[in-house]
Automatic annotation (TrEMBL):
Regions crossing the membrane: none
Swiss-Prot/TrEMBL keywords: ATP-binding, Nucleotide-binding, Transport
Alphabetical list of InterPro entries matching this protein: AAA+_ATPase, ABC_transporter-like_ATP-bd, ABC_transporter-like_CS, P-loop_NTPase
Entry EC no(s): 7.6.2.9
Cited Gene3D superfamilies: P-loop containing nucleotide triphosphate hydrolases
Enzyme class (EC, first level): translocase
Domain ABC transporter: 1-230
PANTHER family named in the record: OSMOPROTECTANT IMPORT ATP-BINDING PROTEIN OSMV
Source species taxonomy: Bacteria, Bacillati, Bacillota, Bacilli, Lactobacillales
UniProt family annotation: Belongs to the ABC transporter superfamily.
Identification of the protein by name: ABC-type quaternary amine transporter
Gene Ontology MF: a single term: ATP hydrolysis activity
Amino acid sequence: MSKAFANKKILDHANFTIKDQEFFVLVGPSGSGKTTTLKMINQLVTHSEGKILINNEEISTANLRKLRLSVGYVLQQIALFPNLTVSENIALIPEMKGWDKAKIADRTNELLDLVGLNPKDYAQRQPSELSGGEQQRVGILRAIAANPKIVLMDEPFSALEPISRRQLQIFIKDLQKKMDLTVVFVTHDLDEALYLADRVAVMNDGLIQQIAEPADIYQHPANDFVKTFFKEYRQNLSTISVENLLLTELSVNPEAQEVADNTAISEIINRLSDKEVLKYKGKSISSDDIICYIAGGDK
């Protein structure tokens, strides 16, 4: 698919498939076409060329209202209605889909409980009475309230301070697995992309440069742009303490090639480009282990 504005191509022949229940992340610098790609999925922006299919249905011929009500959408700008309560904000899509009031009330309370916001304390609050992290939680609940199978997220955590940001990353990753969601997530943050993604699509100047699993894209960049884009991240890895890495739960692989105890982490990273796993002080280290450690996640 392609998109042009005023004869300038914003997206140039992007071609990819997102798997059911996959956490798919679009990452790249500002202006690379990430948000345009996301908005074309629910036709907030129409594509100039090509086709977009959801469940084998071409969306340009689909009922637009039905499409948008069936796909959850979370923005960077939280966009809660300030004159509605928390429960009223969450209930918007179920109400538009014609759910009865009792079912909506049950669903609203269920979702607030799910994110640790006691309905008795939070349901009747105004958005202005919530912290930034709480507002974004409510925004996510509004997106999933009517049980969509697809959720689009456009840099939803970028305006939050680091602790709230990490908490919400953990929350959405867990929620995606619990609810079997297909999530398409836009970010410019490599750490966030590598932590959340099942697969990452790296974009630049309207072109998809590479699509791969985080470990593959990190170890085997497809071209000079991807290599340069990840350079700073790779440099940050060189400051990791190997001893701290070994405190994590690493496996033991007796067939792994052993490296000396005084081997620098940068050397281990370089050698992992050619080896699936290395042994260090009796424990096996893979590229996945390093990525998960840096991103703060579990393998």
